[in-house]
Amino acid sequence: MNKYLSTLALLFTLFISAAFGETLTHIKSFKANFTQEIQGEIGAKSIFYKGTLEATSTNLALWNYTLPFKKQVYIEHGKAYIYEPMLNQVTIGSFDSQADFLGVLKNAKKIDENTYEATINKHVYTLKLKDSKPFTLSYTDDLGNNAIITFSNVKLNEKLDKADFDFKIPEDAEIVHIN
User: Model's pTM, two decimal places?
Assistant: First the structure.
C-alpha cells in the first residue's frame, strides 16, 4: 500500500484506539476539523490541507479533505478507499500488512500529562492533548518531511451516522487497486 494510505491508517489508529493508556480509553468516536501541514526542506514553503475527520473505535473513518482540493478517504475494517472527484478515480488498498500497528501502539509511552509517543516502522509519532482531547499529531515521513495535524472543534463520543462511512464507488470512476 502506498505511504499516503499507510499514514492515514496510522493516524486513525493513533488516537481512536485505546493505545495511549488510560487517558484515551474512553474514546468510542471522534469528530473534528483538521489542518495538516507538511513541512519540507528548510526554506521550502509548507503545504496545507484542511478538512474534517470522523472516526470510530470500530475501525471506521472518513477523512474529508476540502482544501486545496476535494478528496475523501474512507477507512473500513482494514480497507481504504480514496476518492478523488477531480480525477473521477477511486484507489483501493488494504491494511493487512500493517496489522502490527495495534501491537506497537498498545506499548505507546506517556511522555507527560498531555503527550504520548509511539514508534512505528522506525518513525516516531507524537500525540499532544489539549483539555484531555487530541490536539496535534506529528511525525516525520520517509522523505524527511515533517507533518503536523492540528485538530479543532473536537467532539468525542458523539453518535456518528454509520451511513457517513458507507462509500459507494461511482459507476463511471476509474478504479486503481494497490497492495
Answer: 0.81
